[in-house]
Amino acid sequence: MLGGCSSINSMMYTRGNPEDFNEWARMGCENWDWDTVYPYFLKSEGYEGPELSDPNFAAYHNTEGPMKVTKQRFNDPNVDLKLDVLLQSLQEIGINSIEDYNGPTQFGISRGYFMHSAPPGVRSSTAECFLRGGRGGGQGGGGAGGGLHVLKHALATRVLLRGAAAVGVELTRHNKTLHVFATKEVILSAGAIGTPRLLLASGIGRRDDLERLNVKQIVDLPVGYDLQDHLIVPIAFTGAPTSFVDQQNPNPKYSLDYFPYPRLNGFFSVSDWSRPQLQLSPYYFNQSSPLVFKALNNSLNYVEGVVEPIQKANADSEIFMMCLILLHPKSRGRIVYHSVDPLAAPDIYLGYLTHDDDLSIMREGIKKMLRLTESRYFSGWGARAVRLQLPTCAGLEYGSDEYWECYALALARTVWHQAGTARAGGAGGVLDAALRVRGLQRLRVVDASALPAMPSGNTHATVMMLAERAADLIKEEYYG
């Protein structure tokens, strides 16, 4: 998945804000407060960044964990210069530069490149850093003491229950149905979209949903509800005349140094300073290129009326695209399955911006970005926000609050951070604080569907922390 505001999001390493996890504890997830979970973030991390020379930042990182975390590097000093200009411009509108958003403070935008789990050569995925030569395993040896067995070409279809206890999993493999039994418990890790299907297919869910699937209800729980996601809205600004064009070879450059990756990452608020409300991922387009279309159309599915004005502006001017991510949506969506067939696609109702507070925060975030045109650099070039062709907003006064709300509704897209569809904690949670399915024994969920609420940043590091903590909870339960 390359390009647009979605680039390498799944690899970005952002822990979130301490208040995120204190909120989890207030929601009924005992022992998921910041002081409890922080060591689990460190447990996985094998940091290789430059901050380690400064003891003020080294204390916030671990160098010994299996998951390698580093910073993105590019080899274009001209682009680096432009990013420095952008940092100065953001400083002028109240978003300060910081060294490490996983350090003492999260508010601000990183001076260096963003942190991610993809060191040069290979992504530090869970398979690479935990199974292949990682803890308890060695090449091909599996996890703890070689006790992990991965069955390829298999698809889980439901949890096998005996009374109120999970005893195994039904799966299909090479057109055959197989039953695999558990000696202690079953752990589901099929993600925010897949885990609800497995639970519903097993009789765990709301009566109406199970009747539609012709499945007998075993436990009444709100499976598939409470869908949360980080949504993203971009706004593009012109800058200096198009630069870095090779006069002897005017064809657009295709190297990755000219591909619009996010190179900075920041966090700010418009009304609540207990934790960030918005994440900021700026992208820089230094010259007109077909890659711009691929970034915006292929990745985010924007239509020509959105992409063409940006391409046209980029033919004459550099483009700074400021991507705003709503961190703590109050809006909720839902996943609806119409079949227990594991290959059947569900209906996904995202519910973006259906809560007035979400729309207000995004509107005010856009208005804050518009102040960039008043900064020294941007005003010097007569910068403007690129006006897009948005038919749904045609009758509104351009630049009004109503227009920017319509703009946000028209351009909101997913960052692929779906979570909460089998959430833990609270009276309406599917799971208890130990991630066990309520009303059943021997069944646990460990994936993004269990998140009680969204973190202030990309979900990757938070899900890794969840898994590290779940491993300890399981060991404590069975081995003391």
From TrEMBL:
InterPro entries: FAD/NAD-bd_sf, GMC_OxRdtase, GMC_OxRdtase_N, GMC_OxRtase_C. It comes from the Eukaryota. Pfam families: GMC_oxred_C, GMC_oxred_N. The keyword Manganese does not apply. Its cofactor is FAD. The keyword Flavoprotein applies. Keywords: FAD, Flavoprotein. Residues 191-205 form the Glucose-methanol-choline oxidoreductase N-terminal domain. PANTHER family: CHOLINE DEHYDROGENASE, MITOCHONDRIAL (PTHR11552:SF147), GLUCOSE-METHANOL-CHOLINE GMC OXIDOREDUCTASE (PTHR11552). Belongs to the GMC oxidoreductase family. This is Glucose-methanol-choline oxidoreductase N-terminal domain-containing protein. It comes from Plutella xylostella.
